[in-house]
Amino acid sequence: MVYGSADTLANLLHNQSSDMGLLAFNEEFQDEGLDFMPFETRALNPCLLTNKEANISCFRAGDSRTDKPLGTMVFQTLFLREHNRLALELKELNPHCEEELYQEARKIIEAMIHVGPGTLKAHVSQEPATME
Q1: An example Gene Ontology cellular component term from the record (predicted)?
Q2: How far apart are CA 54 and CA 74, in angstroms?
């Protein structure tokens, strides 16, 4: 859902310009400092075709249906923000491993999606985590 099912899409969603393990985010717009998903850059962009006057592109996310139901867009945005928050916290614990930061944050987000927040909270240790 968040990261896409193909490596090519996953690579587009990974912020390659940073060593912080972040997902790519919208560099044009923010919500009081909070990130939005990046815009889609492909030529045949359905959002550009449906509202030519607004000239606003669809969002790029791991699920191609992200722009259709509002709930999907909201969850994609929240998981993007949470991934990046986790990656930054993990960077503080271990500043030397960018790809591992991305993968560890990804594992946590995927666990949150699959088991749900209540179940995950019951199993997360209160002790600070370290990556070795």
Answers
A1: extracellular space
A2: 21
